Amino acid sequence: MKKIKGELYENMINIKQLRIGSFFSLDQFTSKLDTYLPRFLQHEYNIIEENMKSHEIKNDGAKVVAEDILNRTFINAFRILYRIFLLF
What we know:
There is one protein chain. The chain is mainly alpha-helical. Helices cover 76% and strands 0% of the residues. The protein starts with 5 loop residues before the first helix and ends with a helix.
């Protein structure tokens, strides 16, 4: 399987963090769907449905991804600086 890169990977991270979607592997789809699907319907579907009601889907994907990367980078940089500050 090809490595997922760039905007697609960032979109997947956002979907998981916002809990507006679910992911399953090709193996789950082809050979374990009979066990995966009932669990999905019981545990994840209602959460995703509720989150989708209040979520506005943005259509400027590249900008959203860039902002998310910058925000994560800023937060990580802040954490590093904080840890350095604690050393002194």
